[in-house]
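Hey, resending since the last one bounced:
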Amino acid sequence: MGGPNGEARDADCHPLARLAALCGVDTSYEPAPGRVLRVPEATVVAVLAALGVDAATPQAVHQALAAHEQRLRTRLLPPCLVLRAGSAPRSRLPELPELPDGTLYTVELETGEQLSGETDTLPLGYHTLRVRVPEGRSAVAPLIVVPERIPGPEARGYGFLVQLYSLLSDRSWGMGDLGDLADLAAWAGRALGAGFITVNPLHSAVPGADPSPYRPSSRRFPDPVYLRVEDVPEYAYLPPAARERAAELLARAAELRETVLEEREPIDRDAVWRLKSAALELVRTVPLTPGRRAAYCDFLAERGQALDDHATWSALAELHGPDWRSWPAGLRDPRSPQTARARTEVLDRVDFHCWLAWLTDGQLELAQTAAADAGMRPGIVHDLAVGVHPCGADAWALRDALAPGMSIGAPPDAFNPYGQDWALPPWRPDALAATGYAPYRDLLRGVLRRAGGLRIDHIMGLFRLWWVPQGRPPTEGAYVRYDAEAMLGVLALEAHRAGTVVIGEDLGTVEPGVREALAERGVLGTSVLWFERDHEGDGQPLPPEQWRSACLATVTTHDLPSTAARLTGEHVDLRHRLGLLTRPLAVEQAEDAAEIAQWLALLRRLGLLPEGTGDEEGAVKAVHRFLLRTPARMVGIWLPDAVGDRRPQNLPGTSDQYPNWRLPMADAAGRPVSLDQLAASARLYALVDEVRDGLNR
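The structure tokens again:
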């Protein structure tokens, strides 16, 4: 922290630094090895305030410090205990004074069964620990028993990575949907031998907000815009007048689809939703059969308060706009009497949004079933965004678990000298612990319920997150620590119960020890070809045998250039046209060409490029042949690469300059490619043959 004249102070003895450390707030960070920067004192004060700690004055700091240290000295239990299977509760209490002989331990299992005495044979699950010391004091804390590891892939295999909205078929309503996903899975599994399909986050979006799937309204419920309306069973029983109206909507949907596929216009998800919601309003007039009604009631009971909150926010957003922070004051609190009254007034709309969530859940289940029936293991791999939109449903319903006035981001680094602010409110680590990680575990359970696997965006956030106070630049943020043992433990428990694999997106700045901790718990990493270099040596491309095995290996991602664009240098030209380069074009082109030349030279030395460097399609095959030489357990093909697409789905650093998250998959000439055309692509089959042959060697 800086002093009055900006000089660094001794953080180890400064009261504010001690208080920050006790609260898990780092007062310095290391943007590059050996280079340590202090966090501004004003940032530390703001972050502590978001954690409910007053540090605005020296007196307040001393009082907060004394109170915190007193609690640590006198408490019998921490807010929450997370134990690995086979560990006794005492093993997670090293920071507490030794509990005296005669302390009574009682564990209430999640089943309601009572166990007395300290034991190391507790079953997995969410339990409650009670202790009573001889002097009479007692304490209660959540006790979560978790497995050592997350189950990994059954066998080495390959699969596809795709942004679902970009995959239109001849039945889509202007964007890819869950019917397309089920069809893709059935074809890819049966005809191509693929083992998985990784999709973008399918979380519920904020109406009218930017289309990024990584800034959702809710991570707990999927977006009904992905519904295949005609696959809803009640659609077949529309009465004549409603069927006629539905036919009109279908015709308009076909026009939307043709606008994208034939006229090459960007995807307009808001227009798609207007048509789908109108059609779904018609479908809802058809009564559910007794069996379907019973299934719907079970869904309502199973999803409980979370679904009620989500549907209530959705209904109120129709009346007051999608930003709950601008609603009438009484409605900004989901538990207020005003909100309870408003909910009864819009009960039919609340039920409509509950019904949409049920339908979407059902079609997600059908997609995973289609994948499993096609022999896919693990099947559909869903993506979990790192946070939620500050004006959306989760930010409203989970406000007590989120830090007010804070945003997740990233500190300055070599790629972003000004840092990043993602405008996503972070979890409060203290609130998570106090609730036994209930919001976090419920989130995981909801995402995993219809998944064969889960990719977690920015998985380093389970260890620490860069908090940026509102109104301050990202350079003036601070890292806040989370209990990684607890976060990983709850993840392991939920993945174990769902039988899913977990992949962590661990690209970029990764704190020492994080990748090792993830590997220990069975979380696969993410290895992208262009980033895999000998960073501790000469910086040359990393030979395939030196890659890690516990990873999903890919050539590119949704945030990076397509492989064809990278190999040809077209991505540099694109960034130049959009004014994104910070150096002269010639310099950028020369550096990019040198990097590609290094990779091509390695591919030639390994005998992976028999077609020669002038064959673009051959070079795309070659980099995938390279991936198969690595020990990676999962090998992913960016689906647009299979048809020569030139365009990234998202171009970081742009907003209106580029149609992020709105592009259909296209061929090398920029012509959109439908799912039906994809299934007939000779280029795709040639690439897949190379991958399958490599796996079988």
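The chain is about 40% helix and 15% strand.

Sorry for the duplicate.
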